[in-house]
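FORM 12-B: Structure-to-Sequence Request
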């Protein structure tokens, strides 16, 4: 691309991305294995809805980002991707905070096959895609557009799926939150 400065990829940042992913993975496993302390703040019940709103907003931002880049609006595309990354970090913090105090909610509806398919694919793809989402964003950020494009062909649809199914999981579970 004309006028784009490509900065050298930092091995420290790449290692940081993988280390961050490992920490998140371990933290999520520990959160689901630890019993809740039982003294949850009174406002904790809003977090599932908040997480769903964050996921839905991220989904819309990702779609808008694709539209922006298809229309050659690179600056808007970058800004939207940065906003999606910030929202994803906010989601992660909110998710961890909620699960520090709340046990997993059990699904009690009639569509358990559909629910568990959505939940399992959501969880697996969210975990597996995290380092690739971060790498794709980083490569776009440093101006390595060739590597960025190559990665987002696979990473973007997965991130879109994860954000969309996050909303579906909430909608299916919402009648069962305590």
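FORM 12-B RESPONSE
SEQUENCE OUT:
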């Amino acid at each position: 691309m004309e006028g784009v400065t490509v900065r050298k990829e930092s091995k420290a940042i790449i290692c940081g991305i993988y280390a961050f992913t490992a920490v998140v993975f371990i933290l999520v496993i520990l959160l689901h294995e630890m019993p809740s302390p039982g003294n949850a703040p009174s406002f904790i019940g809003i977090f599932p809805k908040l997480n769903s709103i964050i996921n839905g907003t991220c989904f819309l931002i990702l779609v808008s980002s694709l539209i922006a880049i298809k229309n050659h609006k690179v600056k808007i595309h970058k800004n939207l991707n940065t906003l999606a990354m910030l929202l994803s970090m906010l989601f992660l913090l909110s998710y961890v905070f909620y699960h520090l105090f709340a046990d997993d909610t059990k699904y009690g509806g009639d569509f358990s096959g559909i629910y568990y398919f959505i939940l399992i694919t959501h969880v697996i793809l969210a975990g597996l895609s995290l380092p690739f989402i971060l790498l794709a964003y980083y490569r776009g950020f440093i101006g390595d557009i060739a590597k960025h494009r190559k990665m987002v062909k696979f990473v973007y649809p997965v991130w879109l799926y994860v954000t969309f199914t996050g909303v579906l999981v909430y909608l299916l579970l919402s009648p069962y939150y305590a």
